[in-house]
Specification:
324 residues, 2 domains, Peptidase_S9_cat
Length: 324
């Protein structure tokens, strides 16, 4: 065989080897990029679910006028000890009350709800309501090391209900006011408890998975693709938190006769009021459901922006369904 006839075969072999090297190089680069994406997603979710606690739970109240007790009870999941404050109406009136409002805070907060709980206490205790405010698992002073955006927190709220039922008459008539993640948690728990007579949800998300996918660029600065999807997957795979299963918009479909008030400011940049529109649509067959969209109001700020209107609406709702 001539040297000339061997030349094409040699050239072909060289080309094949070059292509293999290129493909191997591209494959390695792709694997490195994927590994980096999943590593960043892990860190994002790890930070989200292990946010530093705010343990400042000191009330700026006149204790002589608003006495309270530090209380503990168990979550109905993971056996976490939940810590909170109980403000008995009897502290002012001297008469035990059979109606109680539970306050449920949001993400990166505690029982004070960034100053909103004292306003609720000072308003409702003189009206004859007990108030129970507590720290959700892994926040404030409660036990736990994982925030789950409502997945397990609903069991903290159900534990609070169980605790009130153990106190004489305090659990006879229970209403819940939840804020942000606490609003979503309140809707989830209320859909599973007949002991919760009515719920007020201020600025809830409709679904935790959708909330993360839509909000991740805003909170982290990362592009939506691919991180919104890989982060949701990572939460489930690494931390066993199925964000897509945390769905208030589906839970409320089981509450077609339970009183529900939804509040959401149209100026909310953290959780769009469109979330509440979708939740309210799921309640369209519930004659006891209502919604209020305070104009140009930021996240959970209706109580500060429109205090007179806020308490007028909330009073009417709670007096009708909890306080009667």
């Amino acid at each position: 065989m001539s040297q000339t006839s061997l030349q094409p075969d040699l050239t072909f072999n060289v080309r094949v080897k070059k292509r293999k090297k290129i493909l191997w190089s591209l494959g390695i680069v792709l694997l490195l990029v994927m590994a980096l994406v999943f590593f960043i997603s892990y860190k994002v979710v790890d930070t989200l679910l292990h946010h530093p606690r705010d343990t400042n739970v000191s009330y700026e109240l006149n204790i002589d006028k608003t006495p309270y007790e530090e209380v503990e009870f168990k979550s109905l999941k993971n056996d976490n000890t939940i810590r909170g404050s109980f403000f008995p109406a009897s502290g002012l009136s001297g008469k035990a009350s059979n109606k109680t409002i539970i306050v449920v805070h949001g993400y990166t907060s505690n029982r004070l709800v960034k100053g909103r709980t004292p306003k609720l206490v000072e308003h409702f205790v003189p009206k004859g309501y007990n108030v129970l405010a507590f720290d959700l698992s892994s926040q404030g002073k409660s036990d736990g090391d994982l925030i789950t955006l409502g997945l397990n927190e609903k069991y903290d709220l159900l534990g609070a209900v169980s605790y009130l039922k153990s106190r004489e008459h305090a659990g006879d008539n229970i209403g819940v006011i939840g804020f942000s993640m606490g609003a979503a948690t309140s809707l989830l728990a209320a859909s599973e408890s007949d002991d919760i007579k009515a719920v007020i949800a201020d600025s809830p998300f409709r679904n935790a998975g959708l909330f993360l996918r839509e909000g991740l660029p805003f909170f982290s600065g990362l592009p939506a693709f691919p991180f919104s999807y890989t982060s949701t997957w990572m939460a489930n795979w690494a931390f066993k938190v199925d964000l897509d299963s945390i769905s208030p918009m589906d839970a409320v479909k089981k509450m077609q006769d339970k009183p529900v008030m939804l509040i959401h400011g149209t100026g909310d940049q953290q959780i769009s009021y469109k979330n509440t529109e979708i939740i309210y649509e799921s309640l369209k067959d519930n004659p006891k459901a209502e919604v209020w969209y305070p104009q140009n109001t930021e996240h959970i700020d209706a109580i500060n922006h429109y205090p007179t209107e806020y308490f007028k609406r909330v009073d009417r709702f709670l007096d009708e369904y909890v306080g009667k």
